[in-house]
# Entry
Amino acid sequence: MKHLVIFPTLLKSLFYQGNWNITNMQGTGFRWLVKDFFKHNQTELPSDFDLSPVYYFNTNPYLVTFILGLLLKETQMRGKIGDYDKIYASALAALGDTFFWHALRPFAFFISLWAILINPVFLVISYFVIFNIFNVVFRILGFYYGYTFGVNVMQLFNKIKFNKWSKIYDGITTLMAGIVIAYVIKYQYVTDSIHVIKSILLFIVGVIISKWVRGPLELIIVTTILAVLILFGV
Amino acid sequence: MKNIIYRVDDRFIHGQVLEGWVNYLKISNVIIVNDLLAEDSVRASIYASTLPANTKFSVYSINDFCSKKPYTKYKKKYTLILIGSINDLLQIKDTFSENIYFNVGCISDSSQEVCINDSVFLSLNDFQKLQNLSELYDIYFHKVPWEKPVIFSNHNRE
# Structure
């Protein structure tokens, strides 16, 4: 792999989306990253790069470094980037949102849940560590693989079958959830058949409301109902 | 919701489209209608790689789409047809029917005059075109299926 100066831009990439706004989404922060990354790697900005303050950009923040790497490669090879910033922003947003937001969060939670047996504090720490291992590894490798593969970096994602990861992680999460539920029923609450019936009823209620919850309002209502049920000893 | 969804989205496939529409509605067919992408297999393959393995993906030029009407093959399943601009949408007006859910999801040029929501910015010209289209069909400004859409509708229509 080519030697790239990534550390300053890596740190900045942790909070580049802090300027997110509805006018240009992450555009302001991304322009800042591009300028920084190119400066540290002694490369002039591409001639066709949009320097306008309303430059629009939005992607999954954990995968943004792949785009920085490929833009640097394109600029050094051709002096311009075309519309690859836009195309890869959309494509990596699709892949990243599905994996990081949809699949990895519950996966990290259910894997971490076992740490509660040792100490409840470890639950928070292990969730933080598991989720961020993926975050940091993707961010660091993104610079290098983006630079190595250039505009063909999607081949890398195809090679590792990244669009299937969320399904695999969902499967593992479901399995872990099943083990946790079985564990809770067996060791914590079930003493006679009435507890089994209550558990089944709560499970059915849970399935029904999980289909219904679509936003914060429904979530608050559901949490309140569950809190009342638990308060009265269901 | 109707099975055939025409979505105007200048980013084509991104997080909202994949998580919000394709996965949420279990859409099995995604079609992009765009002249540039139809001629550029590299760019088209980037979008194709983002979709789940069991989702069919194809790209058509505007003329090909109008002549072949590929969505008619999948009548019973959801089909998402992505179009890059209002102009492109109006160029495929020969394919319009009552069975289509017209969705404007993302037009990100914030320098335009009319802001419908945080992801749709229209020029007055495009706004006028949609107003004309709403004489015939309801148009839904709808980012993701679980949010309430803004509906552009002519209540005098019979």
In short: The mean pLDDT of chain B is 90. Residues 110 and 121 of chain B are 6 Å apart (CA to CA). The helical segments of chain B are 15-23, 35-38, 41-48, 62-68, 86-91, 124-133. Chain B has one domain: 4-152.
